[in-house]
Amino acid sequence: MRDLPTARPGATAHQQSVTLMYSDHHGWLHGWLWKKLGCSQRAADIAQDAFLRVLALADPGSIQQPRAFLATTANRLLIDGARRRRIESAYLEALALRSEDHAAHGPEAIHAAVDALERVFQMLQGLPAKPREAFLLSRLDGLAYVDIAARLGVSPSMVKQYIAKVLVHCYTTLHGAPGA
Fold first, then answer.
1. pTM, two decimal places
2. 102 C-beta neighbours (distance < 10 Å), count
3. pLDDT per residue over 70-126, tens digit each?
4. What are the residue ranges spanned by the domains of the chain?
5. Distance between CA atoms of 18 and 24, rounded to whole angstroms?
6. Closest among 78, 94, 6, 73 to 38, alpha carbons compared
7. What contacts 20, CB < 8 A, 6 or more positions away?
8. Positive or negative torsion for Cα 6, 13, 62, 50
9. Are the C-beta atoms of 29 and 4 separated by less than 8 Å?
10. What is the CATH code of the structural domain delimited by 126-180?
């Protein structure tokens, strides 16, 4: 039988809540992710990231259903990772298509481009799921608004509004409010 982590004496309520949640649910979350992913190391990484998100919460003790919260958080981390890999893959494919000389793009150029894409990805994180997904489907997959609408279960005019919202969000994030 393993020793469960305990909060150190004098720990804050926040620390105690996180410690208790970790000791009660980490093993379950790791096992659930391992079954889902088929890789213990990747499951451990995602579980760790999920608990980092819990640690960042103002009041983790207010979580009513910790396993549901952790599963949702882990699923979102998996989706974020898949999107990041898709962005990186799209960049590398575009780079390969546009370049006659593959050697001209060294590791530094690829790293700089991936960093730029990561900043774009982080900028999109502040948006609701459907506008963000519509933008990615449009820009990365090259889908028409009609096709995006069918995938998201909305009208093409709503997709147009989503794309406009994302573009305004990106502009405001980079340059501040228009006219400011």
1. 0.52
2. 8
3. 999 999 999 888 888 888 888 777 777 766 555 556 778 778 878 887 887 778 877
4. 1-108, 126-180
5. 10
6. 78
7. 7
8. negative
9. no
10. 1.10.10
